[in-house]
Design brief:
It contains three helices and three strands, in the order βββααα. With about 80 residues, it is an alpha+beta fold.
Length: about 80
């Protein structure tokens, strides 16, 4: 993950990548990569801990029924 609090002097930017395995699907990205722009100061206004905020975002998105189906299928494996 890379966090740039002020990219190009106008906006904040998060880059999130799955690592092991590289490119593994995430609740926020089917490709394992997410680029997210947001208002500067948003992370800092919520305590400044980028990692915990991204983990909270992933946890929230992981509640989505589509993600849960994908996760369950991935655990089970498919025979056909």
């Amino acid at each position: 993950m890379t966090y740039t609090p002020l990219k190009w002097g106008v906006i904040a930017h998060l880059e999130i990548r799955s690592i092991t395995p590289a490119g593994a699907r995430l609740p926020i990205s089917s490709t394992g990569y997410r680029s997210h722009f947001h208002q500067p100061g948003t992370i800092e206004a919520h305590g400044g801990d980028v990692i915990s905020q991204v983990v909270a975002w992933l946890d929230e998105e992981a509640k989505d029924p589509e993600w849960q189906r994908y996760r369950d299928i991935s655990k089970q494996g498919e025979l056909f």
